[in-house]
Amino acid sequence: MAQGKVHVVTALSGFVPVMFRRFGAKEELRRKVDNAPSLQEASAKIDLQVQSLEAKILKCDEELKAYVSQATSSAKTRAIQVMKRKKQYESQRDKLIDTQFNVESMAHQQETAEITATTVAALAAGHEKLKEQTGTISLEKVERLTDNIAEVTADLNDITDLLANPLGMAAIGDEDEFAAEYAKLQAEQAADQFLEATLDLPEAVAATEPAKEPMPGVAQATPGASSDAETLTA
């Protein structure tokens, strides 16, 4: 029994340091992540370093021009050293530019993930709110409400029709009687107009006949000439 306890203690003594190392590593990693700069800060720092390297490359170009113009062996040696240094600066600059591209891509993905998370949270909240609002609405209540509205609307239409009917006209006569009386009046008026047109027809014909022209060689009698002839005859 004692030997079994010894084995258990030995096993635990080997497991506990491993467990602490694992949890300690996770805690250290979490602390590093919390203290790490943001992707935007890292990109800005890389950009400053790229600008510094480009300034050094321009300085190397100026030194090369100066050494080449001297045309001496020592100037040639120095020019070769400057070219090597320039090549190194250019390599570092290109690597930093590639690194900056990766950092900016990661920042863009992070922003997209944040927007997606915000959108999902908003949709979830809206869904819960919609469920809460629709949960208080009963389909049966809505159906009864629409039926009641339809009944009230029908009653209101009936009341409106009743109010639109002429008041006190039922004892005088119905619409058919008034229509027959109106047709009779129209017939009488048409007969009167026809009779007047028939009586005025001779005058209208006389007014429209053309005047007779005198025959050639025949003197037309005038009222004065007729009186003179009667006097001579007497």
Name the descriptors:
234 residues, mainly alpha, 7 helices
Report on this structure.
The protein is mainly α and about 230 residues long. Among the domains are: about 110 residues; about 30 residues. The protein is built from 7 helices and no strands. The longest helix has about 60 residues. The protein is elongated and about 145 Å long. The protein starts with a helix and ends with a helix. The C terminus is likely disordered. Pfam families: Snf7.
Give the SSE map.
Layout lengths: L1 H34 L3 H32 L2 H63 L3 H26 L10 H25 L1 H8 L14 H11 L1
Give a nutshell description of this structure:
One of its GO terms (biological process) is late endosome to vacuole transport via multivesicular body sorting pathway. The protein is mainly α and 234 residues long.
Query: Fraction of residues in helices?
Result: over 70%
Order of helices and strands: HHHHHHH
Termini Cα gap: 195 Å
- Rg, rounded, reads 61 Å
Unreliably modeled segments: 221-234
State the total count of DSSP E strands: 0
Shape label: elongated
Determine the strand fraction and express it as a percent band. Answer: under 5%
* SS field, number of helical segments: 7
What is the average of the pLDDT values? 77
Coarse structural class = mainly alpha
